[in-house]
Amino acid sequence: MKLSIFRFNPEQDEKPYMQDYEIELETTDQMLLDVIVRLKVQDDTLTFRRSCREGVCGSDAMNINGRNGLACITPVRALKEPIKLRPLPSFPVIRDLVVDMTQFFKQYHSINPYLINNEPAPERERLQSPEDREKLNGLYECILCGCCTSQCPSSWWNPDKFVGPAGLLQAYRFIIDSRDQATQERLDDLNDPYRLFRCRTIMNCTEVCPKGLAPSRAIEKIRLMMIKESL
Amino acid sequence: MRRTVTGLRAWLLQRISAIYMLLFIIFFLTHFLVESPDSYQAWHGWMMSSGVSIATLIFFAALMLHVWVGVRDVLMDYIHPLALRIFALTLLGIGLVAITAWVMRILLMEHS
Ligand code: SF4
Ligand code: SF4
Ligand code: FES
Fold first, then answer.
1. What pLDDT was estimated at residue B112?
2. Is B82 exposed, middle or buried (0-12, 13-18, 19+ CB in 10 A)?
């Protein structure tokens, strides 16, 4: 199996380059991650992040043949060779496939990703009807891998001002939560020229999300709530 | 409405103007398909009936707003130095005002 992998070590290299690798597939190689983990045995300078190896932690997000995804849940045999691996587009590269997610998490934190409820906490837990709980499906599952935001053109142009699909999906996750009391503040916060309205409904985010979530739909729903609010 | 409505208002304006333009174009084309005027006079008369010329005026107003919001959005994406962006927006604004004036001139002058 042939691979072509983006290499960059800022301490040694002046410029990034693509390095070719070749490796025999073994029967245990199911996912792309299995192969790159074995490649690292061949060449221990190859650098990437991974942890759970089952699509839960979000650390091995990378650009696979031009499309963002998680190496650990991408069946390797279905990929066209040579498999081209690059770091997440538009994120600053730290080394090889490892990118700097600082900006991404800054945007995530900017939407206050926690329940805001000023009533004293009940003895056991804040209850919610099954219907209200239902509304959080398709939102809470996000693992913050960054695949969507890294593939969003609006985030490329204004990464510092546009919250990006991942952050907006989480914003909606708290806006729609029946236990959250800051709905209005959250909507007001997003109603400016940049934070939400840079989104052009290009839908790369939904197309690419490895967890099958739909940030563009969440963004649409936030817009609808804003419209209802302003009437 | 609340303090910061630029984002939502611009977005709504974009959708509403688009819908109006779409309806107008359909109306315009249907007229020409169904009872196409057989002479310049007939066409001119139809165009200048107050209903049609007001609808046309609104169409161009919608078009200008649509272009303003749309192109401004593109400029906000790609042009980040403030001075350059203000310059580009000014050019756009002047262009749109000039076109509007021209349209008004045609529609209103023909009337009198
Ligand atoms: S929405 Fe999907 S692609 Fe985006 S960060 Fe969450 S899991 Fe990753
Ligand atoms: S729909 Fe919006 S958030 Fe998603 S990729 Fe497109 S511009 Fe980005
Ligand atoms: S290693 Fe955890 S998501 Fe792939």
1. 56
2. exposed
> A86 and A147 in contact (C-beta within 8 Å)?
no
Q: Do B8 and A197 touch (CB under 8 A)?
A: yes
For B7-111, CATH gives: 1.20.1300.10
Per-residue model confidence (pLDDT) at position B35? 83
Residues 19-78 of B with CB under 8 A from A: 73, 76-78
**Residues counted in chain A:** 231
Facing residues of A7 across strands? Answer: A17
Domains and CATH numbers, chain A: 2-99 (3.10.20.30), 102-230 (1.10.1060.10)
Structure tokens at B63: 């078009």
Q: Where are the domains of chain B?
A: 7-111
Res B47: pLDDT: 86
Percentage of chain A exceeding pLDDT 90: 97
A47, pLDDT greater than 50: yes
Size of interface A-B (CB pairs under 8 A): 43
Query: Are the CB atoms for A199 and A219 separated by under 8 Å?
Result: yes
Tell me: ipTM over 0.90: no
Determine the Cα–Cα distance for residues A68 and A74; give it in Å rounded to an integer.
10
Q: How far apart are CA A45 and CA A95, in angstroms?
A: 10
The pLDDT assigned to B111 comes to 61
Mean pLDDT of A37-57: 96
Take atom 2 of ligand 2 and give the residue whose Cα is closest: A199
* Predicted confidence band of residue B2 (pLDDT cuts 50, 70, 90): very low
Among all bound ligands, the one having the nearest atom to the CA of A141 is 1
Mutate to test the pocket of ligand 1, among A213, A216, A217, A219 (most ligand atoms within 8 A of CB): A213
